[in-house]
Amino acid sequence: MSIAELKPSADQTDRERERFNAWFREEHETLMREREEAHTPRLALIATKGTLDWAYPPFILGSTAAALGWDVSIFFSFYGLELLKKDLQLGVSPLGNPAMPMKFPVGPSWFRGVNWNIPNTVMGNVPGFEAMAKAMFASTLKQKGVASISDLRSACVESGVKMIACQMTVDLFGYRKGDFILEVTEWAGAASFLPVAATADTVLFI
Q1: Residue 72 to residue 76: CA distance in whole angstroms
Q2: How far apart are CA 135 and CA 131, in angstroms?
Q3: Which residues pair with 180 in a beta bridge?
Q4: Could you read off the pLDDT of 20-69 as tens digits, one per residue?
Q5: What are phi and psi of 98, to 5 degrees?
Q6: Three-class SS string for 37-59?
């Protein structure tokens, strides 16, 4: 038998290449599927607001993601540190926030559905207006069965959400660690949190 007869034909070479490519694609898809199934999604949240209305997004997102099995870290910086205090004294201000609906939580349904467009000059100059707005907002939350910030924060703690307090802001505002809940996972700065954010699947600034 000659060497030419032992040499595979072009058709045989193409078939072998196609079989190898099909096997490789199948193995690659299997590997990627197994990796995806084993992967735990990561969520990194940056909370910078310290008012009652802005306290809800980080805790709702954090507790929901943790309930779905995600690895969640929340970095509380600047005014967001108010959300980690033992004594939650969160206010709410409609001043300069035109998106905030001003509705009375009492009275007949048609009255409660009215959105009162109150000018900023009135909101800013009437004594006690912000306290009234906070009371109205809190009453509406209670009527709608929305969990309190304290309950949502506890849900985050119980589900393993990492609460990271910005050490630089703590020092800047003259806070003491004793002002905050014991469940603060870590006292760190931006240099420590950025690697966490870099490896997260989703990063949200609130």
Answers
A1: 13
A2: 6
A3: 85
A4: 777 778 877 777 676 666 688 999 999 999 988 899 999 999 999 999 99
A5: -65, -15
A6: HHCCCEEEEEECCCCHHHHHHHH
First to last CA, the chain: 77
Strand partners, 186: 164
- Per-residue model confidence (pLDDT) at position 187: 96
Q: Which two tokens stand for residue 168?
A: 């630089």
Give buried/exposed letters for 31-55 (b at 16+ CB in 10 A, else e). eeeeeeeeeeebbbbbbbbbbbbbb
Helical residues (DSSP H) of the chain, grouped into ranges: 3-6, 10-38, 52-67, 109-112, 120-125, 129-143, 149-158, 167-172, 190-198
Q: Which residue type is seen at 21?
A: N
Q: Please state, in angstroms and rounded to a whole number, the distance separating the CA atoms of residues 145 and 135.
A: 15
